[in-house]
Amino acid sequence: MPLRVVVAGATGVVGRTLLPLLRKRGHHVTALVRRADGVDEAAEADDVAVADLLDPSGLRRALRRASPDVVIDQTSGFGGRDRDEGLRRTAELRERGAKNLVAAAVSVGARRIIGQSMAAAYRPHGEEVLDEDSPLWTDAPGCWGAVVRGLAAMEEALLTCPDIEGVALRYGALYGPGTHYAPGGAIHTRVRGSGLPLVSDGVGLTSFTHVDDAAGAVLEMLTAGEPGAYNVVDNEPAESAEWLPAYARMVGGPAPVSLTMDQARAQLDWLTVHQLTEQRGATNFRLRETIGWRPTWPSWREGFAAMLNLWPG
After folding, report:
1. Is residue 254 part of a domain?
2. Where in this chain does the record put each NAD-dependent epimerase/dehydratase domain (predicted)?
3. Which residue, among 27, 131, 13, 18, has the nearest Cα to 75 in the 3D structure?
């Protein structure tokens, strides 16, 4: 049955992929953008509304006009090159913006809201691959701790509100067109410039998610699945010692240099060291078993190759 859907963050990497999929299914789509200059970027939508998630009254007006059945939040602060600013903006959007969006959605009678969370936010624990019952690392240091606390606040707002069905989709490291891993993106540039090293004895795991799979999961969760949190990741969590050299070869960059742990701590920022040495991967078992979801790209290997136009055919 066709639904009326509002997509916040419609011009982001997942939103751009999601809009045409929603319309292909026959849904009426309103793109919610923060600035008027984003209207042209949302050409795939049926309607465009301008509102800031940090402006509760403006947000309620926009949703009242759209009258959605489902509200989707794909907003992010990571669009620019300044990572610390992106972390700060994302923390604010998740903590304050998500609460405003839930309240606005409830006020206009929406039945379901789907929010964007992160599988990377789990508290590191041994060498395990983590599921949705694992705790988020809310007391992590610095800016990353602020982001995780924002995610936790967002998920609490989504999952504890009795007046709407809340779903939190915890993506892995997003890759695909327009992401940091695509040609010209921050990771692509850093690896080609030999700026992302390996760390000796580091066992950091990364779970990856292609933007197509993120959008596909949102599409299915419009009507399927119980409210709750779900990891949306591929089938192959990868150690940094595995994916980073493979990605460097694919992009034509030099082999990553190797640092000791002491060298890494002296030369790299805390978050990069955490990601390379102790971050844990996530399992997609709950989503697979709940709605039968399967990633289009089960492994980052084939997904990277496709993104970089190395895939046969």
Report:
1. no
2. 5-232
3. 13
Query: Is residue 200 in a domain?
Result: no
Q: Which helix (H) or strand (E) holds 312?
A: none
Beta-sheet strands, E only, within 245-287: 258-259
Kindly report whether the global pTM for this prediction surpasses the value 0.90: yes
Amino acid at 105: A
Would the CA dihedral through 210, 92, 68, 51 be positive or negative? negative
pLDDT tens-place string over residues 298-309: 999 999 999 999
Residue 266 φ then ψ, to 5°: -80, -30
Find the CATH number of the domain harbouring 40: 3.40.50.720
Question: What is the number of structural domains in the chain?
Answer: 1
CA distance 179 to 239: 20
Contact 99, 56 (CB under 8 A): no
Region at 232 (left for phi over 0; alpha for psi -120 to 50; beta for the rest): beta
List phi, psi (to 5°) of 172.
-80, -165
Q: Summarize pLDDT for 88-115 with one digit per residue, the tens.
A: 888 888 889 999 999 999 999 999 999 9
Contact 159, 226 (CB under 8 A): no
Whether residue 26 is predicted with pLDDT greater than 70 in this model: the reply is yes
Looking up tokens 């949102």 gives: 218
C-alpha count within 13 angstroms, C-beta hemisphere, residue 54: 12
- Decide if 33 is inside a domain: yes
Round to whole Å and give the CA distance between 296 and 62.
Answer: 34
Closest alpha carbon to 100 in 115, 111, 86: 115
The burial of 239, by beta-carbon neighbours within 10 Å (0-12 exposed, 13-18 middle, 19 or more buried), is given as middle
Please answer whether residues 120 and 130 qualify as being in contact, where contact means their C-beta atoms are separated by less than 8 angstroms: no
Packing angle of the helix pair 240-250, 270-277 (nearest 10 deg) = 100
Q: Is residue 61 included in any domain, yes or no? A: yes
**Digit-coded pLDDT (tens) for 203-242:** 899 999 999 999 999 999 999 999 999 999 999 999 999 9
